[in-house]
Structure formats: C-alpha cells, structure tokens
Amino acid sequence: MADLTSETDLRGLYKPPAGGAVGKDIAQIDKHFAHFIALSPFLCIGTSSPDGLGDVSPRGGEPGFVHVIDKHTLAMPDRPGNNRLDSLSNITRNPGVGLLFFIPGFDDALRVNGRARVTTDPALMARFVVDGKPPRSVIVVDVKEAYLHCVKAMKRAQLWNPDARVDRASFPTAGAVYRDQMALEVPAAAVDAMLDQDATENLY
Length: 204
Description:
- Strands 2-1-5-6-7-4-3 form a seven-stranded antiparallel beta sheet, covered by helices on one side.
- The protein has helices at 7-11, 19-23, 31-39, 86-93, 122-126, 152-157, 174-181, 188-201, and strands at 42-48, 54-60, 67-70, 73-78, 96-102, 109-119, 137-149.
- It is α+β, with helices and mostly antiparallel strands and 204 residues long.
C-alpha cells in the first residue's frame, strides 16, 4: 500500500469532517471548559523540537492543578521530574503545544492547542505553592483552539472499565526494565525501591 504523503492523499481516503467536528472548536475557555479543567487531575502535553521531532509528556496533580487565568490563558506548574526538560526545552524553541485533559471516569477529553512560554513570574509561581514548595517554573499557554474530543477512542480502549484492567504482574516493573536496558549490576527490586522513594519524597 502506498504511503499517504499529503492532505490531498488523505482526503482521497477519508470523508470531509462533518460541520460539528469543525464548528465545535470555540478557541477559548468558556465556563464548561473551565469546569472540565477544574475537575481534571491529569493531562498530556505535546510539543515538538525545531527539527520536527514530536514529544508527549504526562502531567498530573490535584483536580484543577491547571489554572484558568482568563478565557485565552492557562497556567500549569512544572513540578520535580527527571530533569530531561524535553517539553520545556521544546517550548523555548517552538512554542506550539497541544494539551489533552482527562477526568477519571469520563469518556470525554478536552483538547486545547496554543502557544506556550515558560516563566518564573513571582505572582504565577505563588499560585502553585504546595507544602511551602513552589514549582520549578510555570508553563503559560495562550489558547488558540479548544474543543471536546470524540469519545470513540476512550470507548474502544475501555480505559475506565475495571474489568478491562491489566494485571500489573503481566509486565516487568520499571526497575526491571531500567536494569536490563541500562545493564545495571543491581537487583531490580533495589531500583524499584529508589524509584518509589523518589516518587514519595519529591512530588513537589
């Protein structure tokens, strides 16, 4: 089968989007989307490097950890992580971002696309202090597109169905994976213990 290398190629295979699929983009955070964000404890942020390589990173916190500053502006704390800085570095060079918000139990997801910047503005940093600890920085997103995503993917995945949960024992622990991939000369249990300790002590 030939590769599809242009939108013209794609449109030869796919139907045009229905009016609702296009018209649902309201390009702002209205009261419904603000409520959705206030309920959401988890999102994925997509960025891309100047050479076009894409990256997606998970971000989580208490419900509403992303703040709606106004109809066109969101702010999100950057908490301690692995210090690779993939997302932040990409934003400083290519500000285009895509956010996908999830709420446990909801098949709906909220998509927000825009342009981002990274800041340590004191007023914004102060909004996200937890247990006396500020974030490392704050990501501010200028909203350009905002709409609910079709529920079909979530329904196909049965993501929230307890009966569809996969036994964790069916896949090696992170410690076992890292030990094998990095040729570490320590037991997997020791690596897992270090990861668990870090996740417990350095959440904020």
